[in-house]
Amino acid sequence: MIGDRIKAARLAKGMSGDDLARAIGASRQTVSNWERGVYAPSRDNIFALSKALDIAPETMMKEEEP
Fold it and tell me: Which residues of the chain have pLDDT under 50?
């Protein structure tokens, strides 16, 4: 799930949810909702997250293996 990848990348960089939210211009609640799978980030937000977390957008958006 994309939320798991966001959270894992954020923690690997030693960032708090607030840090990530500030880095991409979103609210902490929005980042939390993405990480919990309440809803998915938009395409623009995926690119912002990828840049802030130093991971490829393709990695962030990859489909789950069955």
Answer: none
Euclidean distance between CA atoms 11 and 65, whole angstroms: 23
Which residue has tokens 């937000």?
A: 45
DSSP secondary structure string for all residues of 1-66: -HHHHHHHHHHHTT--HHHHHHHHT--HHHHHHHHHTSSPPPHHHHHHHHHHHT--HHHHHPPPP-
Q: Which residues contact 52 (CB under 8 A, 6 or more apart)?
A: 20, 23, 24
Please tell me the total number of residues recorded for the chain in this structure.
66
27: Cβ contacts below 8 Å, ≥ 6 apart: 21
* Distance, CA of 54 to chain centre: 11
